[in-house]
Design goal:
Belongs to the MQO family. GO terms for molecular function: (S)-2-hydroxyglutarate dehydrogenase activity; L-malate dehydrogenase (quinone) activity. Its EC number is 1.1.5.4. It catalyses: (S)-malate + a quinone = a quinol + oxaloacetate. By secondary structure, the protein is an alpha+beta fold. The protein has one domain: 3-Layer(bba) Sandwich (FAD/NAD(P)-binding domain). 33% of the residues lie in helices and 24% in strands. It is built from 14 helices and 20 strands. Strands 4, 5, 6, 12, 13, 14, 15, 16, 17 and 18 form a 10-stranded mixed sheet that branches. The protein is globular, with a radius of gyration of 22 Å.
């Protein structure tokens, strides 16, 4: 259970109670059990912002079905480099979670992870040709060797009947399928990890907001903290600080004053989903099905018809429908975006704005869509969708990274960015997808950068946690088979 009180000085402060802080804290507790750790979360429970399952739709990112990770090239070929790298990263997360199940940190794997096929689905000649080319590029690789592909309506209907019911027989469609995908409830996973951290002696402070920080002359960090329940303010000190506050990370990173934070900005994009209210429809669909993004749409807006398991209950969602708000967090302030503008990132942000008018147009079109128009978009996936059987829910905020670029002046980056101080006493994570699914490898990289003098001594233990660490499974089919066997057994995956 969370502890009360606050130590004036600790070894490590984790800012934010999401999957990133939970993963880093759990790793450090095993690597350095004598280190003191304090976690500060603005909300009153862990995993309530980007890690919450309703704010983090599409989880279990392994690049099996997300088409934006395998872009078409000008010559018609498909580049699968990013897809391969993301899948390699996801395999690391699976191994780490397996380790935590085996050592008792995580008790019931099905409370946070479940087997679920991943599919890509498109229609029209050009998209079908692209998907065939993508399949031909991916299938020879060990990571994707189980992938299936078809343009047969009946076979697709056997995989996901909602996609075909009511569709014109003559329409060309195509689908690729990877049967052994997963769905992950990162909210449940985060809360289990943080509860265990508390049991292991970490201080867990909910309803506490870190408002600013500064580096003292002895190299330690002083953090100003406000207790949002009683209004009390206090200062705590730490040797190392991790800013894992999602959309709130940029402001705190700027507060740190480290030179590595210069030039970074954030562009917030919100999202909405349609959620089925018809149990019969929910039961007919058992897959994550991703399609092609609209022209000008950000990668996080790739449409998908998505089975989810939340708190043990099965649900069905479609979306996202992108929107715009100046909040950096779902529970944030409309002033978040203007307050983030600094002289050092103004040029970056202006250059990004200049080069992304198509994104602005897309967001405007999405914001003005009526409920009926949203259902019309759903019907492109599920032709027989009934308007009255879908409710609109608001998902979380995503803050895309804007960073300096030597050629363009500034670029909008649709991914995650690990920013660490050169002296190794502070690190922050910015950005979004694939995010949570790659928490374990991102935190290993953070350990490598921030603790170079200790990392060599940790490698034996880290290899026990993650047997393939430092190796590429796609280049070692034998090791891949061994890893999959062990992770499937520990996580109870089919």
């Amino acid at each position: 259970m969370p502890q009360s009180g606050s130590s004036p000085e600790v070894d490590v402060v984790l800012i934010g109670g999401g999957i990133m802080s939970a993963t880093l804290g759990t790793m450090l507790k095993e690597l350095e059990p004598n280190w003191s750790i304090a976690l500060y979360e603005n909300l009153h429970q862990a995993g309530q912002e980007s890690s919450d399952p309703w704010n983090n739709a599409g989880t279990g990112h392994a690049a099996l079905c997300e088409l934006n990770y395998a872009p078409a090239q000008p010559d018609g070929s498909v580049n699968i480099t990013k897809a391969t790298n993301i899948n390699e990263q996801y395999q690391v997360s699976l191994q780490y979670w397996s380790h935590l199940v085996n050592n008792g940190t995580l008790k019931d794997p099905n409370s946070f992870i479940n087997s679920l096929p991943h599919m890509s689905f498109v229609w029209g000649d050009d998209h079908a040709k692209y998907l065939q080319t993508r399949y031909e590029a991916m299938a020879p690789n060990p990571l994707f060797a189980e992938m299936q592909h078809t343009e047969d309506h009946d076979e697709i209907a056997s995989w996901a009947p909602l996609l075909i019911d009511g569709r014109t027989d003559g329409q060309r469609v195509a689908a690729s399928r990877f049967e052994h995908g997963t769905d992950v409830d990162f909210g449940a996973l985060t809360r289990q990890l943080i509860d265990q951290l508390a049991d292991d002696g970490a201080e867990i402070h909910y309803g506490h907001k870190v408002t600013s920080m500064s580096r003292d002359t002895d190299g330690r960090w002083s953090l100003d903290v406000k207790d949002r329940i009683d209004g009390r303010k206090f200062t705590t000190r730490a040797r190392f600080v991790f800013i894992g506050a999602g959309g709130g990370a940029l402001e705190l990173l700027q507060s740190s004053g480290i030179p590595e934070a210069k030039g970074f900005g954030g562009f917030p994009i919100s999202g909405q989903f349609l959620r089925s209210t018809n149990p019969d429809v929910i039961e007919q669909h058992h897959a994550k099905v991703y399609g092609q993004a609209a022209v000008g749409a950000p990668p996080m807006s790739v449409p998908h018809l998505d089975t989810r398991f939340v708190d043990g209950r099965r649900s069905l969602m479609f979306g996202p429908y992108a929107g715009f708000s100046t909040n950096f967090l779902k529970t944030g302030s409309f002033l978040d975006l203007p307050k983030s503008i600094r002289p050092h990132n103004l040029g970056t942000m202006l250059n990004v704005a200049k080069d992304n008018f198509d994104l602005v147009g897309y967001l405007v079109s999405e914001i003005t869509k009526t409920h009926g128009k949203k259902v019309d978009t759903l019907r492109e996936f599920y032709p027989n969708a009934v308007d009255g059987e879908w409710e609109l829910i608001t998902a979380g905020q995503r803050v895309q990274v804007m960073k300096k670029d030597p050629v363009k002046g500034g670029v909008l980056q649709f991914g995650t960015e690990l920013v660490s101080g050169a002296e190794g006493s502070i690190a922050a994570l910015l950005g979004a997808s694939p995010g949570a699914s790659t928490a374990a490898p991102i935190m290993v990289e953070l350990l490598r950068r921030s603790f170079p003098d200790r990392f060599t001594g940790w490698e034996t233990k880290l290899n026990e946690m993650i047997p393939s660490l430092g190796q590429r499974l796609n280049d070692n089919p034998t090791l891949l088979a061994e890893v999959r066997k062990e992770t499937n057994k520990a996580l109870q995956l089919s």
